[in-house]
Amino acid sequence: MIEATFAAAAAAAESKGEHPMTQELRDKARVLGLDRLTEEHLAQFERATTAIDRHLKRLPRDLQPAQEPAHVYRAKRDAP
């Protein structure tokens, strides 16, 4: 549903002469409660969302809980 909203907003922005990617980013930010971003903040938001998308694509999605790597903590021993 959100994807359809973004697509509709991008089409509306394109008809007004605005860059559709800018409007799509603004809409995505607005959904997250970031509705007063400056152009500089919008550029940072674009870099951050691009980076997180790349990161999420590299993560395996089909691991069963038993196959996940163990999280191990070992406390350092006290020096005598």
Question: Could you give the topology of this structure?
Answer:
Blueprint: H1 2-15, H2 20-31, H3 39-58
Helix pairs in contact: 1-2
Strand content: under 5%
N-to-C series of helices and strands:
HHH
Question: Main beta sheet, described?
Answer: none
The tally of structural domains comes to 1
Shape: elongated
Oligomer type: single chain
Helix and strand content put the structural class at: mainly alpha
Total beta-strand segments: 0
Structure description:
The chain is mainly α and 80 residues long. It has one domain (2-58). It contains three helices and no strands. The protein has helices at 2-15, 20-31, 39-58.
Write a concise keyword list for the protein shown above.
single chain; 80 residues; mainly alpha; 3 helices; 57% helix
